[in-house]
Automatic annotation (TrEMBL):
Protein name as annotated: SAM-dependent methyltransferase
Short name of any one Pfam family annotated for the protein: Methyltransf_28
Upper classification of the organism: Bacteria, Pseudomonadati, Pseudomonadota, Gammaproteobacteria, Thiotrichales
Molecular-function GO terms, alphabetical: protein-arginine omega-N symmetric methyltransferase activity
EC number: 2.1.1.-
Enzyme class, broadest EC rank: transferase
Any GO BP: methylation
Keyword list, A-Z: Methyltransferase, Transferase
Domain of life: Bacteria
Length: 408
């Protein structure tokens, strides 16, 4: 994945699609007195019915798309994840699995195949995905790889009404949730809005921001952000950043989303895998431009306002905020570590050796996959794994060694 300011020009058809969405966004801006929050812009760009990036019929994942995920890189990732799920299902005496946003379906296929091999299939494998195009790909992938297990797979339009016993898995789900952008001016945070500019969009400057608006945003920020970034009247200069050069983001939907996960889980474990940082690193003063990034045809850039509907827009995950939201929702924090350590704890060496024995000619490719998944310079440390439990007390295998909970 290359970071660049030069992007390929979309096709005429793609540009027409993007313009349709841009017209809807402009209409929303005009209805809202000339600007909308970046959160609302990102929501429309990614999820506007029929046109948003994640719900329109565009190829997103894989070599023909805009980015590639760990399950696409190697089945070893999914097999390790399946080992952790198997421990939970075994301890519970069976149960269901729910995957949030199943991408191309390859993780579901590889996990089901591995769970079958080790004699620990779930009763049902539920998939919640908003994209009709991805649902079709998921069905095709499962039909190709595990056709005899397709009857266990159920696609959902919403979270199940009856809480499940088992495992909920979300791989790169949190980073796709719309975020609120803010900038800090003289110790006070102000929201960053989006307005119309020429034929496109621009961030709205705040030359004379309203203090009341800044204080309203201050109340929404997690308390730890306030302490790290913003001077407190009780603390004089405080611990925060001063001036107008600090911009970052936060996920306002996290508390409600984690409550919905807690309500969905009767007993078992929620596993979340994503890229991000602990709070102190996420909001360190040197990170003055936040973490917002865009992916378009395997290029990475920092302009979320172009090509609405054609590019992925993501923000790194604040794992401290995720942990706090989970605890507030009544879940137990059951584990937190790097992807590299989670995979090592979950049998990466064993599944690698099994794959190598089955196909010795693929030794180089398998070794490359392991390096990509686990090296610090690749995905090994940038990606983290966090687990929450409910009605489940055994220590999870994937977090036996190298816990990072003390960093949260």
């Amino acid at each position: 994945m290359r970071f660049t300011d030069t992007l390929p020009t979309p096709s005429a058809e793609a540009l027409a699609h993007s313009e349709q969405l841009a017209q809807r966004i402009r209409a929303a801006i005009e209805r809202n007195a000339g600007s909308i929050s970046f959160h609302d812009f990102m929501q429309m760009a990614l999820y506007e019915p029929g046109l948003g990036y994640y719900v329109a019929g565009l190829r997103k994942i894989g070599q023909a798309g805009d980015f590639i995920t760990a399950p696409e890189i190697s089945p070893l990732f999914s097999q390790c994840l399946a080992n952790q799920c198997a421990q939970v299902l075994t301890e519970l005496g069976g149960g269901d699995m729910l995957e949030l946003g199943a991408g191309s379906g390859i993780m579901a296929a590889d996990m089901l195949a591995h769970l079958e091999n080790i004699g620990c299939l779930p009763d049902h494998y539920l998939i919640l995905d908003l994209s009709p195009e991805l649902r079709d790909r998921q069905r095709q992938t499962l039909q190709q790889h595990v056709p005899h297990l397709l009857a266990r797979v159920v696609w959902l339009d919403r979270l199940p009404a009856t809480p499940l016993r088992g495992v909920i898995v979300g791989n790169e789900v949190l980073d796709a949730m719309p975020v609120e952008l803010f900038t800090v001016t003289n110790g006070v945070p102000f929201p960053v809005d989006v307005t119309i500019a020429d034929q496109g969009f621009a961030f709205t400057p705040h030359p004379n921001p309203s203090p009341s608006r800044g204080e309203g945003l201050r109340e929404k920020l997690p308390s730890a952000v306030q302490k790290l970034l913003l001077p407190s009247p009780l603390e004089g200069e405080g611990l925060g950043v001063r001036g107008s050069s600090y911009t970052s983001e936060f996920n306002p939907a996290l508390p409600a989303w984690m409550r919905s996960m807690a309500d969905t889980l009767a007993a078992g474990v929620l596993l979340l895998i994503d890229y991000g940082y602990e709070h102190a690193d996420y909001y360190r003063p040197e990170r003055t431009a936040g973490t917002l990034l865009c992916h378009y045809q395997h290029r990475v850039h920092a302009n979320p306002l172009i090509y609405p509907g054609l590019q992925d827009i993501t923000a790194s995950v604040d794992f401290t905020a995720v942990a706090n939201a989970g605890l507030d929702a009544g879940l137990e924090l059951a584990g937190y570590t790097t992807q590299a350590m989670f995979l090592a704890n979950s049998g990466l060496e064993a599944v690698f050796m099994q794959a190598l024995e089955a196909n010795p000619a693929k030794q180089y490719h398998l070794a490359q996959q392991v390096r990509t998944l686990s090296l610090p310079a690749e995905m090994g440390e940038r990606f983290k794994v966090m687990a929450f439990s409910k009605g489940f007390t055994p220590t999870l295998d994937g977090f036996r060694l190298a816990s990072r909970q003390h960093y949260l």
